[in-house]
Amino acid sequence: MMERPKKSLGQNFLSNKEILSKIVSYGDITENDIVLEIGPGTGNLTNELLKKNPKQLIVVEKDNELAKMIKNNFGNRVSVINKDILKVFKNFRFDEPIKVFGNLPYNISTKILISFIKLDDLNAMCNKFVFIFQKEVAERIVAKQNTKDYGRLSILTSWKMHSKKIFDISPINFYPKPKVWSSLIALTPKTKIEKFKKSNTLEHVTNIFFNQRRKMIRKPMKQLFSNYEYIASKIELDMNLRPQNLSINKYLEICKIFEKLS
Q1: pTM for the complete prediction?
Q2: Could you give the CA distance from residue 66 to residue 124 in angstroms, rounded to a whole number?
């Protein structure tokens, strides 16, 4: 009998085998890879991942019943961690970068992504993410400067990772059927990134800018710096622009000055 999905955990199980197989193919899994799956649910994606014979497959499942089901169905072929991913991801330490898969619960998908982004050693810990997001969230992750979807999530993601939308997935492929479409995203950590003293500096700065995304950037600049006009001229920043008009590099530049003056 199939485990009943829990609405409180945002569970929507993907059941289309053809799509599951395509998802796994984007991970380029070899027999030398350690793979982590977030929220395996009833084990449909887990089953496809095992067909690639990874060196080790670890799954993190918060739901007690589903964690038991995975243990029973796959035995010692899978290491099951019956905990909340947001509480345990910092504990993962491997001798080599791992590959991470997940049909992420809609209600915490951005939290999961940002938690990984904020890891100091992201590049040393992971070499690929293959995630399913709600389509609307996926559009925000991959959005480019000067588009309506470009915002905090696009900037935070592109600070540390290259992201690419692979394909959209119709609600009919899930149980229960969600009201929205989903999208598959592949993310690859960058080898060179701008480092900050605090992991949440970029999050803080972009939050201030995008709180009023339709307003000109004079107001957030004024909020961040007492000598905002001098700083704007120093970094050649046109204060008539709006938050979505600034490039990722310009935000990184603002963050560096903010940390220096804080």
Answers
A1: 0.92
A2: 30
Taking alpha carbons only, the member of 30, 198, 210, 222 closest to residue 118 is 198
Q: Are residues 32 and 145 in the same domain?
A: yes
The three-state secondary structure class of 52 is: coil
- Determine the Cα–Cα distance for residues 46 and 24; give it in Å rounded to an integer: 10
Q: What pLDDT was estimated at residue 6?
A: 47
pLDDT average, residue stretch 226-239 = 97
The H or E element containing residue 99 is strand 98-103
Strand 182-189 to 174-175 pairing? unpaired
Domain encompassing residue 255: 201-261
DSSP state of 78: S
Q: What is the pLDDT of residue 78?
A: 98
* 180 φ, ψ (degrees, to nearest 5): -125, 160
Residue 1 is predicted with a pLDDT of 39
Q: Are residues 152 and 104 in the same domain?
A: yes
CA angle (93 as vertex; 91, 99 as ends), nearest 5: 105
Averaged pLDDT, 106-129: 93
CA distance 187 to 171: 23
SS3 category, 184 = strand
Q: Residue 251 is which amino acid?
A: Y
Q: Could you check whether the bond before residue 105 is cis, i.e. omega within 30 degrees of 0?
A: no
